[in-house]
Amino acid sequence: MFDSDFIANPYKIYHHLRTTAPLHWTDKFRNGAWLVSRYADVLTGLHDARLSSRRSHTLTAALPSEVQSEFATFNQIFSKWMLFLDPPHHSRLRKLLNKEFTPNMIQRLRPRIQHAVNTLLDQALAKAEMEFMTEFANPLPVRVIAEMLGIPSEDQRDFQIWSDDLADFFGNATAPVEDARRAQNSLVSLTEYFRALLPERRENKGDDLVSLLLRVEEEGEVLTEEELLGQCTLLLVAGHETTRNLLGNGLLALLQHSDQLATLKQNPSLMPLAVREFARYNSPVQFSGRAVTEDFSWHDQSIKKGQTVILLLGSANRDPEKFSEPEKLEISRDEGMPLSFGHGPHYCIGASLAYTEAEIAFTTLLDRTSSLKMLDDAPAWRANLSFRGLSRLRLALST
Hints:
Blueprint: H1 4-8, H2 11-20, E1 23-26, E2 33-36, H3 39-47, E3 51-52, H4 72-78, H5 89-98, H6 103-127, E4 129-131, H7 132-137, H8 139-149, H9 156-170, H10 177-203, H11 209-218, H12 225-256, H13 258-266, H14 271-281, E5 287-292, E6 296-298, E7 301-303, E8 308-312, H15 313-316, H16 351-368, E9 371-374, E10 380-381, E11 390-392, E12 394-398
Parallel strand pairs: 2-8
Antiparallel strand pairs: 1-2, 3-5, 4-12, 5-8, 6-7, 9-12, 10-11
């Protein structure tokens, strides 16, 4: 498990787990973890107060003991991320960010997203080919989230590199020390970038997210600078990685299912359902981790305080107890939301934005091209267990 075959196709393993061991202990994930594979159990786990999101320290726990002290700064910054907090601290930060992540905000962003999509596609159509991941799926979400944060375009390439370094470490259960050091350097660089930005934003507030958080601070909410910086770095990484993979995985699914591609071209009104089906079929986020806070029994297994539980979102989305014919891509499927972006208190705050970006991107891509062809014989997947996405997707395209 967690080898190259698993990276290429985790769904065979997920099927085996769902049918034989819905709660399975593995020693191969960092310091060991319980794998939860069925939809109903994953949904329960996402709401269980005994399974804590305060797990930032576990990311470096499997590194050799002699280097643990190197990552104190790393763990300190992560501990401020909303992703790694429980109520009431999580609830307070979530409430503040909810003021910006609204349907009205997404509507205001649609013209900017459309412009970015058109610009990237213009460049590809001019040469009749495109490496979709590096030329479209990577830069598009970075441009969108960077604009939301008020980041100038000339700095966005650095943001993409820092985000990739962090995602590569997050998603590698056996990450070497070198990867951890590179990720720490990128997280520190990203944090210090925003720290240097704060004085200017305090003087000249705009309509960006950083300015919003500063206004909230002035209105009396208790928000430390480290908390503010933590949410800025979280939004960049989460906003980039999930959307990039949704775009790449979705396009691959369409190219591998020509009937569904033809149906979507003929009936673009199916796009909202289609992008949710892309997220279900090959989830951009494959799992969500939790730390056990007290002993309890689950499926006749003894779960111990201090252990880790891995909620396999990608497996839950292929559970036949929830979705009919789950191994089949069906763009008109309407059987409820997949768990790709979580559920409950920790449901991804940017999920609606990610879906909107994907809807605009795919609608424009299908509208402006008469043919799309994958040039590689087989997809090339990034060696990342958590953020499932392609490293390369070469296309030939024509108008």
